[in-house]
Amino acid sequence: MRILVTGGTGFIGSHTVVELQQAGYNVVIADNLINSNIEVLDGIENITGVRPAFEKVDLTDITATKEIFKKHKDITAIIHFAALKAVGESVGKPLEYYGNNINSIINMLTCMREFDVRNFVFSSSCTVYGQADVLPVTEQTPKKKAESPYGNTKAICEDIMNDFAFAENQFKMIALRYFNPIGAHPSSQIGELPNGTPNNLIPYITQTVAGIRKELSVFGNDYNTPDGTPIRDYIDIVDLAKAHVTAIQRLIDNKNKSNIEYFNIGTGTGVSVLELIETFEKATGRKVPYKITARRAGDIEKIWADTTFANRELGWKAEVPLSESLLNAWKWQEKLGSLKL
Ligand code: UFG
Question: Distance, CA 274 to ligand 1 centroid (Å)?
């Protein structure tokens, strides 16, 4: 039994490969390395003692994608992470985002059908809820129009999965809707490797504290929240990775209640930007230089997850405290040093 992990050298993918291997699964990674590094395989091997099989493939190329399945005949499940994911960049490059993210999922599902692989887990996002009217969001919270082409690709991919699952009910699928993944493996062997200037809050903080960036811009303190800064649900990367193992196990054991299911993967707790900075400072003993600036276009005010369904059905729960995730993110940054990637 082998799990195909697309995008397996990326941030979430690499941590998931570690958890899969530690749970006893064989893995093959497919990645085109456009936004990740082959050395990630060393980190995975250092933690687990096993070097996963690796195929450098562009998943929008159907011929090359089929070759993976011809070569690895024991693939029984797919976790599909591979995607372009920069919200801001997607606004300027919609065709690249739609072309890559939509074609690659269609190719994965096409291969599932051709090679009779029955189990599929998709990397979705809480972005599908937009600014929800009622918080916390449950899986039944109505989806809203996406704020960016990137967000729209996640909504469209869910629709494609849904229609495919309806048409071909022998295939079983789970979409995991992540909230904000943060942290790094506690071993500091793998972590987040943002390309250029980070868009996301935590790598921006760690790079600022490491002296690579001058100061953090806190995008707006005039939101309708207790301290005026936006609220998110920050989920530890190892907890998030473990959710994939439970999702795969659920499908393989036929414990799914329908052939397409959606789960919120978060902690259930909302944290503001200023609270996060304060927790980081307490956990690491380092000061975060920051200034308040204007709001960032497209940011929502607040969102956090109702995780009742995931906790009950997957038997999974976020466990790592925020302070520990932030300390791991900092330890990883210290290992990278002042390297500008
Ligand atoms: N923030 C700052 N300064 C920064 C970066 C971020 O103040 O330099 C703030 C943002 O305004 C936001 C919070 O930190 O309030 C978190 O921002 P991130 O960019 O880290 O994360 P987002 O919530 O904007 O985006 C994340 C994922 C997306 C996903 C989205 C769904 O990165 O992939 O959640 O809501 F689509």
Answer: 13
pLDDT for 341 beyond 70? no
Structure tokens at 32: 């085109």
Residue 289 structure tokens: 């230089």
Mean pLDDT for the stretch of residues 23-50: 97
pLDDT score of 122 more than 80: yes
Q: How far is CA 295 from the centre of its chain?
A: 24
Catalytic residue positions, numbered = 150
SS3 state of residue 75: strand
How many whole angstroms from its chain centre is CA 48? 21
pLDDT score of 8 more than 70: yes
pTM: 0.98
Q: How far is the CA of 146 from the centre of ligand 1 (A)?
A: 15
Average pLDDT, the chain: 97
Alpha carbon distance 177, 125 (integer Å): 4
Residue 126 alpha carbon, nearest atom of ligand 1: 31
- Are 8 and 31 contacting, i.e. CB atoms less than 8 angstroms apart? yes
Taking alpha carbons only, the member of 338, 117, 97 closest to residue 208 is 338
Which helix (H) or strand (E) segment holds residue 26: the answer is: strand 26-31
Task: Tell me how far apart the alpha carbons of residues 269 and 285 are, in angstroms, rounded to a whole number.
Answer: 23
Say if residues 233 and 126 touch (Cβ distance below 8 Å): yes
| Residue 128 DSSP class | G
- Closest residue by Cα to atom 11, ligand 1, is 219
**Protein residue closest via CA to atom 13 of ligand 1:** 201
Contacts 24+ apart (CB under 8 A), 94-100: 94/149, 97/149, 97/150, 97/153, 98/149, 98/152, 98/153, 98/156, 99/60, 100/60
Examine the pLDDT at 61 and tell me if it is beyond 60: yes
* Of 73, 22, 15, the residue nearest 50 (C-alpha): 22
Query: CA-CA distance, 78 to 85, in Å (whole number)?
Result: 19
